């Protein structure tokens, strides 16, 4: 069905991930207090269960390991963070975690936006209908930089997703509302179909540990990573 209309007070800035990463990276690197280590992985925390005093890093360039000492370590390694494992290695009890895995997958294709439907064009969201008792199926269309539209079809576990270009439009046509299919039906595709399996919703509960080491904080998806459709990034 349709969401009822209400006065819009929120807005979203739509762009592709490479552009977002590029803008953030360029801005960060204008600070001479920040040094970027390319092709370097954090592999362990240094310290003990009372205080984290640094990070052990591994260079993918030359295969060496090195300890970086720090007053404050920020885990921002995203939804595949090794934090629980790293904390256990310091002798802390396991951090509690909630995992809800609906088996979400995405199938995405980009198109040339028609003239007049680029900047300012609204995001389109055909939501899943939970009343069907079937695996959830939904689709979105987001305008992007460079006069492009990005269309994504998605399903929960057991649903069928298009993996080939020729099945993308028929799948969009089978959504609960034809709006998305109508929009992409007459525009020129720019890419093939990309399928991604997102992984589970996952939330850590560091606050439930009865002790937490000084010198360590967690931000972003390392702490809580949900279905990307929420746009929580
Ligand atoms: C398919 C998809 C679509 C999404 N769409 C949207 C959207 O439209 N809008 C929105 O707001 N959010 C969206 N999100 C969510 C958003 O991307 C995340 O919430 C956000 O990127 C989290 O930021 P972060 O900095 O915590 O982690 P990330 O952006 O995941 O960054 C973590 C970084 O750490 C690096 N890293 C990982 N492990 C290590 C290690 N051991 N050592 C060194 N570096 C490491 C990774 O390479 C990565 O660069 C989407 C997510 C996905 C997966």
UniProtKB/TrEMBL annotation:
Pfam families: FAD_binding_2 (PF00890). One of its GO terms (molecular function) is oxidoreductase activity. It comes from the Bacteria. Keywords: Flavoprotein, Oxidoreductase. The keyword Flavoprotein applies. Residues 25-89 form the FAD-dependent oxidoreductase 2 FAD-binding domain. This is Putative polyether-specific epoxidase.
